[in-house]
Amino acid sequence: MADVELARSFGRAANEMRPVTLTPGVMKNADGSCLAEFGDTRVLCSATVEESVPAWRKGTHAGWVTAEYAMLPASTNRRTPREYRGRKGRSMEIERLIGRSLRAVTRLDRLGEITVTLDCDVIQADGGTRTASVTGAWVALHGALMGLVEAGKLPRLPLTGRVAAVSAGFVGDLALLDLDYPEDSHAQVDLNLVGTGDGRIVEVQGTGERTTLDRAQLDELLDLGQAGVARLVELQADVTGFRLA
To answer: How far apart are CA 232 and CA 56, in angstroms?
Structure first.
């Protein structure tokens, strides 16, 4: 197991994340944007504000936050075909996760009948694209909502906190945080954790890829994941200045 740890990208220990960078304001025409980099994984997240809501939401005096996700053709070592409506199985599952995660920390009743759409486009994939998307999308959402506040369209920021996501898993018998692609492709158990700035869990996605796990192993992965989320939400606070839990 020591060989697995020593072979990790960026020379990191089992409980260490890859270098993470969140760069806000990278797109001129977006209402909010962020380039999220988890090691060699890079996701461009942009937020677009529309002063309308889906038909089923009209008359509720509440807004909506949703997301779309895609992998660009050259984001992997073999060309990824472009996805079109009707053939977006994995991407649809991920974009629903992103939307749920962001709505968990957004007061939709304070948003008014406004829709914010987060577009998460993977420009380079090396594992953890969904977790980078959630983390970067929150920064983009914060930027868009701050723009509404500064324009006088909202009286206050309708966010209740920060939200971020990270992966963890067992490769061999070793629990690892923030799996890159080689680790993810060989993992016996793979888990994605979405959590908030105050340590609460939004969602857990765990799969026994090659074996099952017991409760103690699940707790070990959750502990790793929550430590990772804690680092990510602190980084979000650093780049946005938003430090509410």
So the answer is: 34
Interacting residues of 21 by C-beta distance below 8 A, sequence separation 6+: 35, 36, 37
State the pTM of this model.
0.93
- Whether the CB-CB separation of 140 and 101 falls below 8 Å is answered with no
Q: Where are the beta strands (DSSP E) in the chain?
A: 20-24, 32-38, 41-50, 64-71, 115-124, 163-171, 174-177, 189-196, 201-208
2-240 domain in CATH 3.30.565.10? no
Where are the chain's structural domains? 2-240
- Reported as type and span, the H/E element at residue 235 is helix 215-240
Q: Say how many C-beta atoms besides its own lie within 10 A of residue 223's C-beta.
A: 14
- Express each pLDDT in 58-117 by its tens digit: 888 899 999 999 988 888 888 888 877 655 688 899 999 999 999 999 999 999 899 999
Per-residue pLDDT of 113-165, as tens digits, reads 999 999 999 999 999 999 999 999 999 999 999 999 999 999 999 999 999 99
For Cα atoms 19, 22, 25, give the angle at the middle one, nearest 5 degrees. 155
Backbone angles phi, psi at 216, to 5 degrees: -65, -40
